[in-house]
Amino acid sequence: MFAANICFMGEDIVGSGAGIELVGLTKRYGAVEAVKEIDVKIPAGTYCCLLGPSGCGKTTTLRMIAGHEGVSDGDIIIGGENVSELEPARRGTAMMFQSYALFPHLNCLDNVAFSLKMRGVSKSERRASALEYLALVEMEQHAQRLPSQLSGGQQQRVALARALVTKPDVLLLDEPLSALDPFLRIRMREELKRLQSELGISFIHVTHSQEEAMALADLVVVMNDGRIEQAAAPRDVFERPASVFVARFIGGHNVMSGAVVGEDPASAVAIRADRVRLARAGRAAGDESGETHDITARIAAVEYLGLWAKLRLDAPELEDFTVALPDSQFFDQGFTVGESVTASWRSSDLHRLGADR
């Protein structure tokens, strides 16, 4: 694990990090606005995930922070300095690309040392620093290998060492885990989080994976159609989604018209899938304290997911309504596709949603 190696590296490998502020940041491509006047503050030393579907503007935002895309309007402030017009090398950032972008003709050591070479660092100094950062990511034993001789996970580690060797205040990561298999993806996100915490620098990580953002981030910035729908801690985003879009995109929530629960039909409410009780039609779903709501529906589909079973319900008042049951409860009850059930929930578990931006 990275943490064991970090302890031996000394103070010179630990960064101080820098806060980032985006003020009215906008990007236009002709008549198309890809990013629309977004405002967000990312405190120093934060692991921030930009989360959203394809085309929502998250990668364009990352590339503007890096300086690889020009700013149409607004400002990018890093460590208190407006860097909107600065070239990438002067921003105190480093970027790790989705493709890793390693030079195929250079070995791992020279790939990591390349940016230092471009800065005029002496050969002995840059090679020593490159070896140090390869050790940080547990790749020093492969220093002489070419990228083609490495696995995808090993290439990612080398790309990470190359990004960190310049000691940036902010590391920018463009979907760095998307090419990895599920098992390695989980291990690598654990190591990314540990590394960020140990180094103390700011990470801004673009992802379309809700699970990845929840696992990694101190701050989740949910984007949609070029705008920020919500920026908050992962638990706040999940427990209190700010809009219909966030509730649906984050997952684990059912969105209903207010009319279903006796409120304004123009409003929307959400209930977590694991907060819904289920019983066969005509039976109570269990003792409940406080005001409750219930509805009769038919089980339209069942998915067994190991720890949980997900049941999709069909009723005129409901759309894409799911119930998450612990596996033991699901098998004890023996629910099957096609049978009628009563779904119920406490009023206190309902969350009122704001309008989408």
Write the layout of secondary structure elements.
Elements: H1 2-6, E1 20-29, E2 32-42, E3 47-51, H2 58-66, E4 73-78, E5 81-82, E6 93-96, H3 108-118, H4 123-136, H5 152-164, E7 170-174, H6 182-199, E8 202-207, H7 210-216, E9 219-224, E10 227-232, H8 234-239, H9 244-250, E11 253-257, E12 268-272, E13 277-280, E14 292-304, E15 308-314, E16 321-326, H10 327-333, E17 340-346, E18 351-353
Helix pairs in contact: 3-4, 3-5, 4-5
Order of helices and strands: HEEEHEEEHHHEHEHEEHHEEEEEEHEE
**CATH homology-level superfamily of the largest domain:** P-loop containing nucleotide triphosphate hydrolases
The CATH topology label of the largest domain is Rossmann fold
Major sheet: arrangement of strands: 6-7-8-3-9-10
Distance between the termini: 41 Å
Q: What is the count of DSSP helices, taking H or I runs of 4+ residues? A: 10
Give the proportion of residues in helices.
25-40%
Low-confidence stretches: 1-11
CATH class of the largest domain: Alpha Beta
Overall spatial form: elongated
Please tell me how large the radius of gyration is: 24 Å
Beta strand %: 25-35%
| Biggest beta-sheet profile | 6 strands, mixed
The CATH architecture name of the largest domain reads: 3-Layer(aba) Sandwich
Task: Work out the count of structural domains.
Answer: 2
- Indicate the structural class: alpha+beta
Annotation, overall tally of beta strands: 18
Task: Give average pLDDT, whole number.
Answer: 90
